[in-house]
Amino acid sequence: MIRLIALRLAFGAMTLWAASVLIFAGTEILPGDLATALLQNSATPENVAELRERLGLNRPALVRYGEWLGHAAVGDLGTSLSNERPVASELAPRLRNTLFLAVFAASIAVPLAVILGLLAAIWEGSLFDRGVNMITLMTISVPEYLVGYLLVKYLAVQWDLFPALANVTQDMELGERLYFSFLPMVTLVLVVVAHMMRMTRASVLAIMASPYVEMAFLKGLSKSRVVIRHAFPNALAPIISVIALNLAYLVVGVVVVEAVFVYPGLGQLMVDAVSKHDLPVVQACGLLFASAFILLNLMADVMGILSNPRLRKPR
Amino acid sequence: MKLFGHRLTIPAAIGLAIVAINVIAALGAPILAPFPEAEVVGDAWAEADATYWLGLDNLGRDIFSRLLYGARMSIGLSLLITMLSFALGIVMGFTAAIAKGWVDTLLSRGVDLMLAMPTLIFAFVVLSVLGTDIPVLIVTLAILDSVKVFRLARSLAVGISALEYVEVAKLRGERLPWIITREILPNAMAPLIAEFGLRFTFAFLFVAALSFLGLGIQPPAADWGSMVRDYREVIALDVPAPFYPAGAIALMTIGVNFVVDWMLSIHASSHGRRA
Questions:
Q1: What average pLDDT does range B36-42 have in this prediction?
Q2: Cα–Cα–Cα angle for B255, B256, B261, nearest 5°?
Q3: B111 touches chain A (CB under 8 A)
Q4: How far apart are CA A54 and CA A71, in angstroms?
Q5: CA distance A23 to chain B (A)
Q6: Nearest-CA residue of chain B relative to A164?
Q7: Residue B120: closest CA among chain A residues belongs to which residue?
Q8: In terms of Cα–Cα distance, which of B198, B221, B168 is closest to B267?
Q9: Is B78 part of the contact surface with chain A (CB cutoff 8 Å)?
Q10: Would you tell me which residues 181-240 of chain B have a C-beta closer than 8 angstroms to some C-beta of chain A?
């Protein structure tokens, strides 16, 4: 088992490294020229040559990649092209905000999804089951910004319960922070709960078809006891992996939700940087998002191996 | 009611109707739209009346006309992206499945790597270097999406090429292109078509999200994602404008999903009967 996990960790580390190469190579392989894109209308040959010199674009790509990765490893992410400030200091508060929002959303979404999924499995085919099924199908199809703006329209504008803009600041108290980021949190929860809940229901129902569950029923146990004590522990592995996958989605879905609520997070920073061609910031944000995504996927696999004895031996 | 010899379920009928209305809107936009998409016809945020069915937008353009032209842009673009990604994905997937050996290993490992990264972040990195022209957008998203098509196409082709009739064709001395187009492709068609629907909704939502973030289709062209972006300031006032394009996006996605669900269930049941 330890060998299997070590193998998976090594693969994760390799993926992480490959992701850094891809993010960096994006600027090298692509046919566009950064200096020309940055200067736009004032891109005379002299200007372009000067800017290329200043950005160090004339040195070999491999050297620059080594430098970039080496500096990134010790926390130096370069300087922003648009405002000349160090990227790391721009990034840190944004990263904290995004993590706060993601953890807040996850702490509500995960228990909610598992409980709803279990209830739907216990009352399979009931009105509750069909109702939840219908609602989650809808929320899967509906884009985040529609959910977000509907919440703003009713909860913020019409009934004035929560602020429409989640402009949290660093000096806010925890309670105030939670209050300001409530609507973005609800939006994220609505978007991710659907997948997690459906998967929980499906995995539990798949286990319910097995002989030992029938045995439990024949012993005269109640349905809720069979579902919770017998089926659920065995359905845990797929549920955990789906939860981790959806948390990874949360990391990316946060970009759109931040834009809806003007939440000062990493996603907003990256979107601004993309439109300004501010490459160091894009690369740094990309690296962070990709690492979070890869780490969560890695966690999903490791937890899957740990929770399911059948996966502990390599096939 | 029946379609292609299969009974139409109620959600499928609703889905088909939604898709049909959207396609008609997209194709007929120049004829159906009462005003050109970028023409200013009155005051900003004028209320809906008999001439301007859904009111006017932030610059005084007719929202209904823009919705129709937006359908053309949003649906047309996603369709182009999906078709291109399928062409790429199927060719690569089938090649990997048939060539086997190092070609397969190389392509599959590359694809695993691409799948280990979030698509949106990848798109951001590319768009930050290349800028957001429509051709760049199409090619970038098509390549990112083709990775997922590759997975399906490869596994389908691996399954089918192990069957006897492919073996027979090989022994008959047929060439690779013939085997791919005449033996494998027709038998992989059903799951590929359902996947086409799913990938279309993905591309559709993705383009809309990029436009909403201001990184997709640039003004003055009308497209649903950027319309939501343009109209979002009036959310605090009592103007329903942002909900028209956002609702259109949701409706179209739900419609396609209903149709895809139906196609998948046909595929599953016809297999069940044969077995």
A1: 79
A2: 100
A3: no
A4: 18
A5: 7
A6: B236
A7: A252
A8: B198
A9: no
A10: 201, 205, 208-209, 212-215, 228, 232, 235-236
pLDDT (tens place) for every residue of chain A, 315 residues total:
778 888 888 888 888 888 888 888 776 666 556 666 666 666 677 777 777 776 767 677 777 787 777 777 777 777 777 777 787 888 888 888 888 888 888 899 989 998 998 888 888 878 888 888 878 877 777 888 888 888 888 887 778 777 777 777 777 777 777 887 888 888 888 888 888 888 888 888 888 888 888 888 899 888 888 888 888 888 887 788 778 777 777 777 788 888 888 888 888 888 888 888 888 888 888 888 888 888 888 888 888 777 766 666 654
Mutate to test the interface with A, among B115, B129, B200 (most CBs of A within 10 A): B129
C-alpha A90: how far from its chain's center?
A: 20
**Cβ contact (<8 Å) for A141 and B212?**
no
- Write out residues 107-146 of A within 8 Å (CB-CB) of B: 137-138, 140-146
Q: How far apart are CA B70 and CA B241, in angstroms?
A: 14
Closest CB to B130 among A30, A140, A252: A30
**Nearest neighbour of A149 by CB, restricted to B120, B128, B246:** B246
Total domains in chain B come to: 1
CA neighbor of B16 nearest in space, from B263, B267, B264, B258: B258
* CA A24, A30, A35, A39 torsion-angle sign: negative
Can you tell me the distance from the alpha carbon of A240 to that of A280, in angstroms, rounded to the nearest whole number? 35
Chain B environment of A270 (Cβ under 8 Å): 121, 124
Q: By three-state DSSP, how is residue B40 classified?
A: strand
B207: containing domain = 2-274
What is the structure's pLDDT at B61? 84
Q: Which of A20-34, B13-27, B185-199 has the highest mean pLDDT?
A: B13-27
Q: What is the distance between the alpha carbons of residues A106 and A40, in angstroms, rounded to a whole number?
A: 42
Among chain A residues, the shortest Cα distance to B236 is held by: A157
Instruction: Kindly state the average pLDDT of the residues B240-247.
Output: 87
Tokens of A99: 């993590």
Strand-pairing partners, residue A291, are none
Q: How confident is the model over B113-146, as pLDDT tens digits?
A: 888 778 888 888 888 877 778 888 899 899 988 9
B184 burial (CB, 10 Å; 0-12 / 13-18 / 19+) is buried
Mean per-residue pLDDT for B1-18? Answer: 79
Q: Which amino acid is residue B106, in one-letter code?
A: L
- A289–B121 C-beta distance less than 8 A: yes
CATH code where residue B101 lies: 1.10.3720.10
Q: How many CB atoms lie within 10 A of CB A252?
A: 17
Whether complex ipTM tops 0.90: no
* Chain B CB within 8 Å of residue A278 CB: yes
Distance, in Å, from the CA atom of A267 to the CA atom of B52, rounded to the nearest integer, reads: 37
